[in-house]
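Service request form, structural biology core

Requester: graduate student, group of Dr. S.
Request type: structure prediction, single chain
Budget code: on file
Notes: please return the result as structure tokens.

Sequence provided:
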Amino acid sequence: MSTQQFELLREQLKLLTPQQLKALQGEISNQLTPSAASILSDEELHALTQLFK
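Core staff response, request fulfilled:
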């Protein structure tokens, strides 16, 4: 990805809702620190997060 594409992506992130940002944050965290076996899927984790808002 070029620097220009990355900067465009960063600008587009500002258009996301808080829920979308949290879902993306979870995916990024999983990419940075992958575990051998996740106990919960991203969807399950998102659902639990929504319950405790």
